């Protein structure tokens, strides 16, 4: 299967496993899990037949590791980014002192007024990888990377979670914990 076909399947999986499992007749179980066989059957019933081998390829080769299988390989879920109502069952974790968030410069005024908000998703997504955040910001316009003082947020009572693909999650980042990195830091 060519990269474009795999990308198309990955986008379809994101839509189903993050946002609209009901679009193919599925319901997310606690943790965001669905049975692999149920997913493959639902896809086939909705005109998008995918083999288990192709599903494995999409999960294991995804550059951002958006999906994961259960330990026994019988269930699958999206690791983060949900707008569908689900308890992902992540446990609180202590983040590194500083985390990063990529965005576009056009959003800075709002961010420095309201902070980073989760919008219709469950959490704000943060990373330890500065370079990845430049790429994330580039998707929305001229990129900028914000530094998040996670150490102070924890000291002030904010909770963080970490996913299996090392994305750090929190409910909100108030503006006082944010600092724009110099443009030379985002090149």
TrEMBL record:
Its EC number is 2.7.1.-. GO terms for molecular function: NAD+ poly-ADP-ribosyltransferase activity; tRNA 2'-phosphotransferase activity. The keyword Transferase applies. The keyword Cell cycle does not apply. InterPro entries: Ptrans_KptA/Tpt1, RNA_2'-PTrans_C, RNA_2'-PTrans_KptA, RNA_2'-PTrans_N. Keywords: NAD, Transferase. Removes the 2'-phosphate from RNA via an intermediate in which the phosphate is ADP-ribosylated by NAD followed by a presumed transesterification to release the RNA and generate ADP-ribose 1''-2''-cyclic phosphate (APPR>P). May function as an ADP-ribosylase. NCBIfam families: PRK00819.1-4. Belongs to the KptA/TPT1 family. PANTHER family: PUTATIVE PHOSPHOTRANSFERASE, TRNA 2'-PHOSPHOTRANSFERASE 1. This is Probable RNA 2'-phosphotransferase. The gene is kptA.
């Amino acid at each position: 299967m060519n990269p474009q076909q795999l990308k198309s399947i990955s986008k379809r999986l994101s839509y189903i496993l993050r946002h609209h499992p009901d679009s193919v007749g599925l319901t997310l179980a606690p943790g965001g899990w669905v049975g692999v066989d149920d997913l493959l059957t639902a896809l086939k019933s909705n005109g998008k037949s995918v083999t288990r081998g192709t599903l494995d390829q999409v999960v294991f080769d995804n550059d951002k590791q958006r999906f994961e299988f259960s330990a026994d390989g019988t269930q699958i879920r999206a690791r983060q980014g949900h707008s569908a109502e689900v308890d992902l069952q992540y446990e609180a974790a202590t983040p590194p002192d500083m985390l990063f968030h990529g965005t576009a410069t056009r959003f800075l005024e709002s961010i420095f007024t309201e902070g980073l908000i989760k919008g219709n998703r469950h959490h704000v997504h943060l990373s330890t990888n500065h370079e990845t955040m430049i790429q994330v910001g580039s998707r929305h316009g001229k990129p900028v990377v914000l530094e998040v003082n996670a150490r102070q947020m924890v000291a002030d009572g904010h909770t963080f979670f970490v996913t299996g693909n090392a994305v750090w999650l929190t409910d909100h980042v108030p503006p006082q914990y944010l600092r724009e990195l110099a443009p030379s830091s985002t090149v």
